[in-house]
Amino acid sequence: MKTSQSTFLITILLIASFSSSTHGLILNGLRIGSIRINGVLFCSLDGNLIGNSPPLSGAIVQLSCAGQNTDIGQALTNPAGVFVVVVKILDTFFFDPATCFIRVNLPVATCSVFPPDGALTASLNLVSIIQTALGNIANFTTGNFVHSIL
Q: Which domain of life does this protein belong to (predicted)?
């Protein structure tokens, strides 16, 4: 009985080791271990820098992907309006740069010029892939924000 349990365990481990190479995010031929998305949010009609619009501090920024019921990452803007969303290796399986976007739900209490409902959304642009001993990091930045009705 003990031999059959050992054989079963070895079989499961072998299957897992072979299948793991087919899962996860691959960009430019490199397996991605984590994702960093950088952006800046301003208190303006569309969230972009317009004239001397002030940075937006304390806003919740979410990474959403089409077809997913939950956000796969989020961050809070700092006093300069800067945010960094980090997605770890397990969540990269759900990440597709073609269908994922940054979203800020409206209204945001600290900015009175935003529209009263909907969301600000921004596309993602790949900037670089950094190869490290701990895995490859894909660095993205946001495109311009636009107002969307959800």
A: Eukaryota
Give the distance from CA 135 to its chain's centroid.
Answer: 17
Residue 121 lies in a domain: yes
pTM of the predicted protein model: 0.79
DSSP notation for 105-121: ES--TT-TTS-SSSEEE
In a domain, 4, yes or no: no
pLDDT per residue of the chain (150 residues) written in tens, 0 to 9: 455 555 554 544 444 444 344 456 888 888 988 999 999 999 999 999 999 999 999 999 999 988 776 788 999 999 999 999 999 877 777 888 889 999 999 999 889 898 888 999 999 999 999 998 888 999 999 999 999 886
Residue 129 to residue 137: CA distance in whole angstroms? 6
Residue 36 belongs to domain with CATH number? 2.60.40
* Number of separate domains in the chain: 1
Residue 43 lies inside a defined structural domain of this protein: yes
Q: What sign does the dihedral 49-50-52-53 (CA atoms) show?
A: negative
The length of the chain, given as a count of residues: 150
- Using left for φ > 0, alpha for ψ between -120 and 50, and beta otherwise, residue 28 falls in left
Task: Give me 88's structure tokens.
Answer: 């770890």
